Amino acid sequence: MTRIVAGESAVPRHKRAIEAALAIGLVLLIAVGAAVASGVSRNTDAQAATPSPTPAEELKLGYFGNITHAAALVGIKQGFLAKDLGSTKLSTETFNAGPAAIEALNAGAIDAAYIGPNPAINSFVKSQGESVSVIAGAAAGGAQLVVRPEIGSAADLKGKTLASPQLGGTQDVALRAWLGSQGYHTKVDGSGDVAINPTENAQTLKLFQDGKLDGAWVPEPWASRLVLQAGAKVLVDEKDLWDGSASGKPGEFPTTILIVNKTFAAEHPETVKALLRGHAKSVAWLNDTPSAEKAAVINAALQESAGAALPADVIDRSLKNIIFTVDPLAGTYPKLLQDGVEAGTTKQANINGLFDLRALNEVTGKSISAAGIGQD
To answer: How far is CA 224 from CA 220, 228, 230, in A?
Structure first.
């Protein structure tokens, strides 16, 4: 018997309790489902906002048609770079000097470049560390101040006119720093106790032959060309200015390094590793290959990139002055920065973070030091 009270439904109380419980459970289930769906949606949105790194479709690489850039010349000519880049297309562009290459890199016209250290420092300083990272070394040595035979010492340079490849470039800074150590005052507008005319290397050779220049601080093969083809003599071999206290390697100073645009590296780390694998193979080939074969391949590459091959004696002399290495000699950079400051081509700054050698060390299995001014 079911007892019915006035105002109460005829539905049994326990049945209504079950229905209420079911309703509450359904509400809770919907709420939990909504929360889960919201969480999944947020995760999906976050993943869409931060895509996983993928190889780049194209890598645009800059370099110079100089023997100091042989790692690039050989890497392109022998196919080391393209092979390791795999599906990433390799595009290349040649430059005459570092500042021009830096402008192209900062404008997005290239993604990575073989370059001298001082333009890389300048770019890093001006961008407050946002523009480039040094990811490897390529060559050490191979730069000299060559002059007319009648110039016997630094004392004979007062009032003379010298050339460098480009204002603010590595050899330009080296020349200004050395002249300062000899008591000469120079200005970035070219005036001073010794006039400095930034000049393209090919024009430097012609101007020297025409008697319009008294000397030049230049990289190989131009130092050798001036000596062997224009009768110049070496007044300063830059390797004699480096005692090894900064790098632990006497006579070695960075001439060519490999840098990459930081944004490109962050978006395509695997492409940067692929570039470094090819680069390391190129440097190893340069160090392991017999001289005659090495000279032939470099000359063929110079013919393609610079439009002219070199005489055998020029290549032979040039190669004897260069050390090919993946070590960027990071310990030398505080001095390089200070030289630029004193030369008036850069400003005093903190260059901590300039180096990122993690990928290089991973690819090569080495422990190359960033000397406390970057990651290794």
So the answer is: 6, 6, 9
What single-letter amino acid sits at 217? Answer: W
Prior bond to 221 cis, omega within 30? yes
Average pLDDT per run of 10 along the chain, which is 376 residues long? 31 39 38 40 39 83 93 97 97 88 92 94 92 97 97 97 92 95 94 94 95 96 96 97 93 96 96 98 97 94 87 95 97 94 90 97 96 96
Nearest CA-CA partner of 56 in 89, 29, 98, 82: 89
Q: In a 3-state reduction of DSSP, which class is residue 127?
A: coil
Which contacts qualify for 337-340: CB closer than 8 Å, 24 or more apart? 337/121, 337/125, 339/118, 339/173, 339/174, 339/176, 339/177, 340/118, 340/121, 340/122, 340/168, 340/173
Kindly write down the DSSP assignment for every residue of 6-73, as one continuous string.
TTS-SS-HHHHHHHHHHHHHHHHHHHHHHHHHHHHHHHHHHHHHSPPP---SEEEEEEESSGGGHHHH
Given a contact cutoff of 8 angstroms between Cβ atoms, the answer to whether 188 and 222 are in contact is no
Whether the Cβ atoms of residue 297 and residue 315 lie closer than 8 Å to each other: no
Q: HSE, CB side, 13 Å, CA atoms: give it for residue 77.
A: 25
The region that residue 109 occupies, defined by phi over 0 for left and psi between -120 and 50 for alpha, beta otherwise, is: alpha
Sign of CA dihedral 179, 185, 187, 190: negative
**Which pair of structure tokens corresponds to residue 10?**
């005829």
**Dihedrals phi, psi of 271, to nearest 5 degrees:** -70, -40
Length of the chain: 376
Nearest Cα to Cα of residue 84 among 275, 341, 370: 275
Q: What is the pTM of this model?
A: 0.83
Residues β-bridged to residue 147? 215, 233
CA 349 vs CA 99, 129, 330, 354, 373: distances in Å: 18, 10, 16, 12, 12
* DSSP 8-state code for residue 186: B
Straight-line distance from the first to the last Cα atom of the chain, in angstroms, rounded to the nearest whole number: 87
